[in-house]
Known about the structure:
The protein is mainly alpha-helical. 45% of the residues lie in helices and 9% in strands. The chain has a three-stranded parallel sheet with strand order 1-2-3, with helices on both faces.
Amino acid sequence: MIAASREEDITSLILVSTPGIRGADAILEQQTQQLTQMNASDAERAQKIELQKRIQLAVISGVGWESLPAGMRKQADTQWFRSLLVFDPAVVLPKTKQPILIVQPALDTQVAPHNAERLAELGRKRKKSPPVQVATIPGINHLLVRAKTGAVNEYPELKEKIIVPEVVAAIADFMRK
Length: 177
């Protein structure tokens, strides 16, 4: 998205399992999903979410590390993580001029399907509104492979770990157009 917003030589944009919300919000959403799958208690969930919010605040602002567990800073205080947390597609996507294909696995629990809807909405609000297409692929997870639940803990149990042809077909069809 960032490259497409800056480079006119990029003729189209394909977003696969892409968050449509700020990175910090996407991380909290992922954590909430994982805690639910783990059957964590309400108290445990609240505690872990609060810790994650404090970590994110420290990474973004540089303040508050002293109140966090030792070793947390070494893991989280990186330029890469900070850039992920502050990235907001609502700021970047309006600057793109290319047609967009959004590929969304229907069983994605890491980047929930509502993100594709949000990206499409942002894409359609652009000036001159180049085409925006959403391809929601049923029965596949974040890894673009067939799955039953899409849960991360299902990954090791998956027998076939090959990207489904429907993803390739959606991309090829978009590129032909």
